[in-house]
Write a structure and sequence with these properties.
It is a single chain. By secondary structure, this protein is mainly α. It has two domains: 68 residues; 71 residues. It is built from eight helices and no strands. Helix 2 packs parallel to helix 4. It is flat and about 70 Å long. It starts with a helix and ends with a helix.
Amino acid sequence: MKNRQHSVAAILTALILAVPMTSAWATHRNDAEQAIAEAKAAHEKAAEANAASDETANMIEQAEGLMPSRQFTKAREIANKAKQQDTFAYEQATGAAKTDETAASEAERAIAAAEQARKKAASVDGEWRDTAKMIGEAESLAKSGKYREATDLAEKARRQGELGYDQAMHEKDADFPSYVTSWRQE
């Protein structure tokens, strides 16, 4: 009986401590709504400078579309990306941001090389799962002016494309091992 009371007390203590912490990691509706409002404001500011893009407008709409399904964390992430891109576009249009042309062209070359490696791997059914997603994230980072991060991510994606191609070519003529084929013949 005494052990049972201790285990019940331990469970209650754990629940009392754990339940308040569960909301700490989740994004609340207010946070997502605030991020969307900030993204809209940045988009309007970029539009005033003729620097707004349809892509960021679509991202904001996508974030708003996630709200009814209670995907607040994803909505906040998308809205923050849109805000970063519009803010950077506004700064470029008004001359506030000095673009490092070398870093920008390096990121562009790295992204193009990654896309080429991905297509080469895909041509032999060797494309790895997240390669295209990594390239998309690198493009998003470049649009936000984060050229160094975009270059690094594109290099990783390029390497994945190369490895995927190599793996597919090595497995191309692979057959079952002899111990498997001898079992099948019996």
